[in-house]
Task: structure prediction
Amino acid sequence: MISLFITILPIQAQGFRVYLNNGSYISYSKEEVDSIVFYNETNNDINENIIKYSFETYDIKNNTYAIFYEVTNNQERVDWASGNSAFTFSGCGTSPDVYPTYFTDDSKEGNTALKLETRSTGEWGKNLKKPIAAGNLFLGNFITTTSLTNPLRATRFGKPFALKPETLKGWYKYSPGISFTDKNNDIIADKTDEMDIYAILFDTSNGNEYLTGENIFTSPDIVAIARIENGQSAEEYTEFSIDFDYIQEYDIDKQKNNKYSLTIVFSSSKNGHLFEGATGSTLIIDEVELICSE
Result:
């Protein structure tokens, strides 16, 4: 069971614990040390595999924007994806902290949390009917060169995943912006922005290695979805816990042959992919757990 985590899943990162079925866990230090230290303890209350993301590891790329990542046991780096690279086209990214996807020290635990803020793309975005850029973070890849011509195809959701996800949980704060606008930058009266949190497990045995913004909720390859129902305001840290709804039977043979992929998605504006939302909408995420069975 331990080798499954280490060699297949890109989930281990500094600053969290991975719980195993036998009750032990692997704990990754958040201290700046030369190597990662492992600890094993017995905890008879833990019966599931729990993958935890604490958003403590990130880089600032060329002093422009933040890239969050995980580090596997064999020191391989696995990046989270965001639309930050496309925001550079707007000319509004004057410093890393004004990009849509960044970090904050307003954390539930640890040193940092994920901060997503819907930003204006200025005159550049208005002219292209892309007046806002929602803060987002997801497991997958973002194709910057495609983002201008076909932004929905620029998001490629999913990473190979070898366990059966049962529940997605964590903590969030959310403050919607004042004025909700559409892609024409027209204010939509009486409409309040909402955030979004969801995870999707999908089948890759048909050769479709990723989902896109075009089919993220409609693909016939989707096996299970966990999506928050209430994306409204929360001034203090609020816990969420979302069970996966399986719309197809989970196939153990496909699991053994690595034919499943998973994405987890966070967005400060639920309709941000349509360039609808409110500038200033801010979603803070911390201490996310993915509870899985074998």
User: Anything to note?
Assistant: The chain has one domain: 61-288.
